Amino acid sequence: xxKNSVKNTRINGEVQRVLAExxxxxxxxxxxxxxxxxxxxxxxxxxxxxxxxxxxxxGEDAQKATLEGLRSAEGYIRNQLARTVNLRxxxxxxxxxxxxxxxxxDMSRRIDEVMEKDRADHAATDGTAEYDENN
Length: 135
Description:
Elements: H1 6-26, E1 36-43, E2 49-56, H2 60-72, H3 74-84, E3 92-97, H4 100-126
Parallel strand pairs: 2-3
Antiparallel strand pairs: 1-2
Helix pairs in contact: 1-3
């Protein structure tokens, strides 16, 4: 089975959906942040390993605690995955923190700041800025 075959794509999608359900509703570990999402899943073609990229809404401490909680619950998660998804092998899951959402939000904020500064500079040079010269 090739890495990007239709079968592998379907398996990735199904494992991602089931992992999200397990993390959201099945784990009672207080270290795992409530706003944890599974961004993507890559199951190896031989179904032995799986890389699950997760995103956590919160600070760096919440991200580290969530990663620790998920790693400690890996056996339970794998067991639930085996019960839900009918695969020949249940993959060994590796959780990876995905920073792409936080990076995107940060870049969007920076772009907004630059655009606002540009508008303010443009308004000041055009003389359209509103200010009172008496004060």
